[in-house]
TrEMBL record:
This is diguanylate cyclase. Residues 255-385 form the GGDEF domain. CDD domains: GGDEF. It comes from the Bacteria. Pfam families: GGDEF (PF00990). Its EC number is 2.7.7.65. It comes from Stutzerimonas nitrititolerans.
Amino acid sequence: MPSLLDVVSSRLATLLPSELRSHELTKLLAPHQHSLLLSQRRATLIVTRVRMFAFLFAILTPLWGLIDLMVFTYPLWPGLAACRLMACGAFVCLLLFYRPSGNLFDAYRAIAILFAIPTVFYVASHIMLGGHQLTQFSAAVATGYAFLPFVLMAGLAIFPLTLLENLVLASVLLLAQVAVGYLSWSTLNWPSYVGAFWLLVLIAGVTALASLSQLAFMIALVRQAIRDPLTGVFSRGSGEDILQLHWHAARRSDQALAVAFVDLDHFKPINDMFGHEAGDQALRDCTRKMLEKLRGSDSLVRWGGEEFVVIMPDTDIEQAQIAMRRMVEDGLGFRPDGQPLTASIGLAERCFDCVEDQRQLLELADQRMYLAKSEGRNRLCTADAPLGASA
Ligand SMILES: Nc1nc2c(ncn2[C@@H]2O[C@H](COP(=O)(O)OP(=O)(O)OP(=O)(O)O)[C@@H](O)[C@H]2O)c(=O)[nH]1
């Protein structure tokens, strides 16, 4: 009979996002476990949403100035109007000049600017309103200003953020609320301030859930979009993106970047003699074997049919040869007749081969793979001459 603890933990497990696989759950905690592609797509989405938010606020912020004009007296309303116009200008600049670059730090900066604008506006307007005697009607409108932190906190829900990122951003907004309490210490209505603070904490909790759910969907969608459905390794389109990202990173820091073109030998007879399903199974087994031997930082891409590309960042030509030999040393699985499945591999490296761009790097690896084929298959070719059988 299951213990109470087992029942509770199995019930709690059903609360976890079902669209994620168990090994993906840690990706909800912090961004350091995200793949390059996920980070890139998330950064792009965050900046796009920052710009949407900025667009909305650039319209709504000056509009409310008309209400201020009707209820506040001189010189309070021109002061508030100036604040609103400056905030509107800052939102417009954010909208016009910030473009998605795919870089996560650019995305963080965009969120920081987006939230800094209304936070500064909130603190400044609070100081202005605190320095004036308000009548019943204008006091009611002034109370509306106190809702800005709630709007900002709720706004976090539109971003696919990790728990850590949520905590940092929510803490900053809560600290701004603390700062406002400190500035109006002497006149503070404590019960309503504490009530409002607690409400803000509740909204932060709900927002974090919304934001994490978005991230979970995004992780699942990106996985589906970038993976080959048969083998589960990267598909060609995402492989091209990965190679481009690694190429730029390697060039910036003048690091090695190796690429191997792997073509399985005599694959057609498997399909012809044993059927397509047997061919599919051989492809699945073979990719599993390759993945077992590759480093976590390497990317295995199904380039097409029975052709694969291995992208090895920060790996020089000698290390890449060792990695490829290790990958094939226990074989790549078996053909349905029990014979070992072999591959012809062409290898190229950015610094060793002095190539100009990632396309040239890939072409060179492809040419060397054909050389390995023409020299008898089941071998690795690094430069102009293949390096013997059994890769
Ligand atoms: N079962 C299965 N077969 C595939 C898949 N994609 C490509 N193939 C087969 O892979 C075979 C590739 O054949 P070829 O290009 O002639 O290459 P090969 O027979 O491996 O010959 P060499 O590369 O010269 O050693 C074709 O029969 C394709 O139908 C797939 O997803 N599943």
